Amino acid sequence: MAGTWGRFNIAALVLGFAFLYLPILLLVIFSFNESRLVTVWAGFSTKWYVQLFSNQGLMDAAWVTARVAFLSASIATVLGTMAALALTRYTRFRGRLLFSGMVFAPLVMPEVITGLSLLLLFVAINFDRGFATVTIAHITFSMCFVAVVVQSRLISFDRSLEEAALDLGATPTRAFFQVTLPVIMPAVISGWMLAFTLSLDDLVIASFTSGPGATTLPMKIYSQVRLGVTPEINAICTILIGIVTVGVIAASLVNKRREVIRRRDEAAYA
């Protein structure tokens, strides 16, 4: 009976991973296809990657996306960390429930509603849509994800380390930057990478808030896919998959290294 359940679990696991990752694997494989027909294999070739870098429209959209993702992720990380600190350290203040709801609302808010709300805001204040509006929109919805990640780490943070630094004469600011921040840095880095990935992937909110000269890569890909999938689309998607994969592996290695250092320091002090 145990063996039967074991085989069933293995089969379910294989089917689940195949359902999730087989389409991605096929996309990567056909990005190296010699033929322009994306469903007919005609031999290995990298010519579509060469043509991709000659496609000025896709390159401009990729550059816009990279700038928006880096800037919005960096600002969202700072704001999300500050929000997490406020919610963790100050459990009682007037308006805390409202503040918490405003921070975490984008987690459950449909992207269409968020995009439309921001569009109406920019129109109401007569703010021209473009690079700045897309960046602000991405900060708005990615900040809450950073706050969740950092708050989960702060909940388990040992406050006695910070109190010891204060007893030794450190200011609250110095204690935070030299004691608290290094400990929660893996969570901060994870939050930044999550915000960066969400910004790279966003289509709906960017469609509402973008303007002339601020077409992101997902918007460009979507507009071209409606006319038919081309090998260049497979190539650019493969590059995006590679960037995200490298980022996830790098974050995992950083977290693992910091965990090893933390355990070594704890053993040294024990």
TrEMBL record:
A GO molecular function held by the record: transferase activity
Residues spanning the membrane: 12-32, 61-85, 97-125, 131-154, 175-195, 233-254
GO cellular component, one term: plasma membrane
Topology of this chain in the membrane: Multi-pass membrane protein
GO biological process, alphabetically ordered: transmembrane transport
Subcellular location: Cell membrane
Domain ABC transmembrane type-1 per the UniProt entry, residue ranges: 62-254
PANTHER family tied to this protein: PUTRESCINE TRANSPORT SYSTEM PERMEASE PROTEIN POTI
Family the entry assigns: Belongs to the binding-protein-dependent transport system permease family. CysTW subfamily.
Name this protein carries in UniProt: Ornithine carbamoyltransferase
Taxonomic source organism: Nitratireductor basaltis
